[in-house]
Amino acid sequence: MRKKIVAGNWKMNNNKSETADLIQALKSLSFSTDVRVMIAPAFTHLAQAEELTQAGRIEVLAQNMNANDSGAFTGEISAKMLHSIGIDKVILGHSERRAYYNETDVGLKQKVKTALTYDMEVVFCFGEELDQRKAGSHFEVVQSQLETVLFDLNSTEWSKIILAYEPVWAIGTGETASPDQAQDIHAFIRGLIASKYDEDLAKDVSILYGGSVKPANASAIFSQPDVDGGLIGGASLNAEDFIAIIQSI
Ligand code: PEP
Fold first, then answer.
1. Among 59, 103, 128, 166, the one annotated catalytic
2. How many Å lie between the centroid of ligand 1 and the Cα of residue 46?
3. Could you say which of 14, 57, 208, 235 is the most buried, measured as most Cβ atoms within 10 Å of its Cβ?
4. 21-74 tens-digit pLDDT
5. Catalytic annotation on 166?
């Protein structure tokens, strides 16, 4: 049975003590056992975050990783390194990685494979750009992203995949997909998985929505039947807002 998930992507924000303060503020929160709460601090604070959350239910994930195990890749972090400090989850394919660091679906496919080799869970981000939405090609775009990166995985590997549909036009812009727009595409995504694999597998995959989720719009989006939570950027940096979003699920 799939879980509801609220994950905060802290991006390149918060120094060491700000990260610790935000974690402390979240630690007192209690939430239902069918909900998972995750945070993705910067690489430099992952070990600290892992220690601070050890006794509780908040899970820590990385924002990215390299596809290779080791080698001459200056400035990069491997799955093996993450694994060695107890990090067993990673966000891959975020639109900012695609836009600013030229990440492609073909490269992401390799990253997903590596992460799975280390038994890591992957929050895989994908979604269309504004011109693609305007042209009505968002269903095709999303289909192609999923087919290229994930559709050769077997069903055991799928148990490690969490999907995050993030329309690029809604990320950090204040524009949000309406609850109906989110439901339409989430149902389409689940249908794609059902037709490639089977209904049971499709029912078990958590599909998160990301793009300007705030306390004011979270419950309308999360109440859609195929929306299983959210990947939250800006609003996850403020403890009060992030807690309000978690409580909306
Ligand atoms: C994100 O970066 O994944 C995101 C959804 O950001 P925001 O919530 O700020 O739009």
1. 166
2. 20
3. 208
4. 999 999 989 999 999 999 999 999 999 999 999 989 999 999 999 999 999 999
5. yes
Q: How far is the CA of 72 from the centre of ligand 1 (A)?
A: 31
Residue 48: CB partners within 8 Å, gap ≥ 6? 16, 19, 20, 41
Please report, for residues 77, 78, 113, 133, 196, the alpha-carbon distance to residue 185 in angstroms, rounded to integers and kept in the order given: 33, 32, 25, 11, 16
Number of H helices and number of E strands within the chain?
12, 8
Q: Which two tokens stand for residue 74?
A: 């200056």
Who contacts 240 (Cβ-Cβ below 8 Å, separation ≥6)? none
**pTM score of the predicted model:** 0.97
Report which protein residue has its CA nearest ligand 1's atom 8. 233
Domains present along the chain, CATH in parentheses: 4-247 (3.20.20.70)
Given CA atoms 35, 41, 47, 48 in this order, what sign does their dihedral have?
negative
Assess whether pLDDT exceeds 90 at residue 100.
yes
Scanning the structure block, which residue is given the tokens 């990385």? 62
